[in-house]
Amino acid sequence: MRPGTSRLSGDGLTLAYDKRIITERLDVVVPDHSFTVVIGPNACGKSTLLRALARMLRPAAGTVLLDGADIHAQPARRVARTLGLLPQSSLAPDGITVAELVARGRYPHQGLLRQWSRTDERVVDESMAATGVTDLADRLVDELSGGQRQRVWIAMALAQQTELLLLDEPTTFLDIAHQIEVMDLCAALHEEQGRTLVAVLHDLNQAARYATHLIAMRDGAVVAAGAPRDVVTAELVERVFGLPCRVIDDPETGGPLVVPAARRPTPSRA
Question: Is the pTM of the predicted complex or chain greater than 0.85?
């Protein structure tokens, strides 16, 4: 990756729902081949920003640039072949199997002159293998656990074969073991396949552990952006989250680890 290169960015974004402005004149850059994670308190604009980057929300002002051009000026099918999205709440149709859902990721590659092919079949098989759901292919999605369903949705996004993948809170509602499973999978997609990932996360320590690039937001503005070691400081955590803390070295990775300050006396131990 050349320093400073970016296929996906936002320039002067004002994002709003009806007349309620969420962000104003926001600039954001997603470095190529990074695992970018957006962090910040609730209602700071993280998911709104991701929806704008994914072409699901048209800016009231400013431009989302994909490969140097306005994303809204590009054909939807072309965008879908370049950029995939795993939304925060994904609902599968009733009665659909894992293999059928993953196959839906191939829809952007279909057309009047190009129907289902052996290539599509191979990509679906490879996507299920990469996410460890091959043995679930014939199971109904509704029958799966939360962690299994999330891996299936990621498999569908993989089958779309986009170089850019956006994930909105991919670990929500998962227990800690499944959260780590999903984050390890995302890290593997980034490290082994060179994909550019952008994720919104609530867990600051997971963000610091897995991200190569962090974007910290508060009140609709970018407060800091850069490598986790540079962004995750005690001063920034208190400024952004209102949380007094210490930042120490993660004993597993050597990266920053946030330890909240005790707010009440530690119970005495007999």
Answer: yes
153 vs 214 pLDDT, higher one? 214
**Amino acid of residue 105:** G
Residue 210 CA to residue 66 CA, distance in Å, equals: 24
Count Cα atoms within 13 angstroms, Cβ side, for 213: 18
Angstrom CA distances, 205 to 149, 236, 244, 264, stand at 24, 14, 15, 22
| Distances from the Cα of 10 to the Cα of 1, 68, 154, 243, angstroms | 19, 10, 25, 29
First vs last Cα of the chain: how many Å apart? 56
For the chain, helix (H) and strand (E) counts, in that order, are 9, 12
Burial class (CB in 10 A: 0-12, 13-18, 19+), 49: buried
DSSP H helices in 30-84: 46-53, 76-80
pLDDT number for residue 3? 45
Q: Which residues contact 79 (CB under 8 A, 6 or more apart)?
A: 55, 66, 71
Amino acid at 268: S
Q: What is the pLDDT of residues 167-200, one digit of tens each?
A: 999 888 788 988 898 899 899 989 988 889 999 9
